[in-house]
Amino acid sequence: MTPLQRVAQLVGPARFARIMRFYPPYLGAGVRVRHATHDLSRIEVEMPLTRWNRNYVGCHFGGSLYSMCDPFFMLMLMTRLGPGYIVWDKAATIDFVRPGRGTVTAVFELPESQLREIRRDADNLGKVCPRFDVTVTDAEGIVVARIEKVLYVRSKAAKSGGSTEGRQ
Question: Could you give the number of structural domains in the chain?
């Protein structure tokens, strides 16, 4: 268990998500979890435009836009599936739709029905690579970026484990 996993276990998943604002990459970019449900089925994240995350032309740096969305689906899935599953980030794409100015937000949701499907597939197939989408919007609700995440999920109990190639 990593030190961050020990902290999450000690304070609980929702509180851990909220204190991630002190994680150095998030501290500099100003990323903060605005709300997290106790079971991490829904997380709302925001990032104001600051001099630390502004690019050359004065809008949000693309790396900061991606960074604000990077860990949440993995954390949600790890927490909700429990210790019987291995979860890794596998791939991601980002589509920059328009310049981000001001505070941008992203809402991550993992409904129970999707969680059951992932668990079932991982148990039956050994591994599964679910896809998740999140949209980053500005204060007016206008889309700034769309991000697709692909995760790798493997049941520890399944006989055919498969490879963890591509994990981060």
Answer: 1
Q: Is residue 144 domain-resident?
A: yes
The C-alpha angle with vertex 27 and arms to 44 and 13, in degrees rounded to 5, equals 45
Find out whether 104 and 136 touch, Cβ atoms under 8 Å.
Answer: yes
Q: Which letter does DSSP use for residue 84 in this model?
A: T
pLDDT tens for 56-99 read 999 999 999 999 999 999 999 999 999 999 999 999 999 999 99
CB 68 within 8 A of CB 100: no
Tell me if residue 16 falls in helix, strand or coil: helix
How many whole angstroms separate alpha carbon 46 and alpha carbon 35?
A: 10
Q: Specify the CATH number for the domain of residue 33.
A: 3.10.129.10
Entry pTM: 0.87
Element (H, E) at 14: helix 13-19
Q: Provide long-range contacts, Cβ within 8 A and 24+ apart, for 160-166.
A: 160/125, 160/126, 160/127, 161/126, 161/127, 162/126, 162/127, 164/86, 164/88, 166/90, 166/91
So what's the pLDDT on residue 120? 96
- Per this entry, what is the length of the chain? 168
